[in-house]
Amino acid sequence: MRRAIVAVLALLATGLTGCGMGDRVITGTAIGVAEDGTKSDAHERDTRTTVLEPVDADGFPARGWRVDPGRTGGSIDCSYPESSPSAVSDDIVRCTPNAAAADTCFAADDPGQALCLIDPFSNTVVEYAVAGAIAAVTAPADPRPIGLVLDNGDKCRLRVGGAWSAPESHPDYVGYYSCDAAGDAAIWGPPEGGGIDESASQWSVEYGWITGQLTTQRVVEAFYTGRAE
Fold it and tell me: Are the CB atoms for 102 and 116 separated by under 8 Å?
């Protein structure tokens, strides 16, 4: 079953020039559903979920987004029909190679190009040349956030392939998200899960480094991806 997305609109203001979270104006109220079916404002302790919509239906950067001129180049293959793991809209495709971090790509207005969301904490997309056609795909039934903001202030991005070592304190764990903190912090968990405990209204993760003990961090905000109308 698709996760309930409690905040499904991210309207980004025009005139943004930076790439940080502070540059983005995100509007929309997190809405919760009570047991009687009525809607109410979500409590501050609840994890906020937001859908990023960087590309419009015509294949252009959406309002408030721009192509990063410093990260163009290279070619990716989007022909295999695999949806982006973070998608809540159809036709957001995962492309190869993994080294391109092109797991969230949209067909651009130019048939030979794709616009990919590499950094969910910026207001930019990266333009890639596409080898062949871009597959039509259906959004996954149970999408995973492309990015998380934790209560310790760290920002974490969904893993895109690669070989990771296991944390010494939990040698059976795997890494699910890489985080900005110095020293390659990550979100870890058992291999059969997704790295996020969603059993409560405020989600939590196991966070830390390969060495040392992992700590439990609350998830302040989780970002999914969609297509702007």
Answer: yes
Nearest to 78 by CA among 93, 98, 56: 93
Distance between CA atoms of residues 96 and 151, nearest Å: 32
User: Using one digit for the tens of pLDDT, what is the confidence trace for 174-224?
Assistant: 999 999 987 789 999 999 989 999 999 999 999 999 999 999 999 999 999
Task: Please state, as a whole number, how many other Cβ atoms lie within 10 Å of the Cβ of residue 177.
Answer: 26
Q: Where are the domains of the chain?
A: 147-221
Tens of pLDDT, residues 110-134: 999 999 999 999 999 999 999 889 9
> What predicted TM-score, i.e. pTM, was given to this entire model?
0.81
Nearest to 11 by CA among 60, 71, 52, 43: 52
Per the listing, tokens 């039509």 go with: 136
Q: Which of 38, 43, 41, 9 is nearest to 26 (CA)?
A: 9
Kindly report the number of other CB atoms within 10 A of residue 82's CB atom. Answer: 15
Token output for 119: 């950094």
CA 79 to chain centre: 21
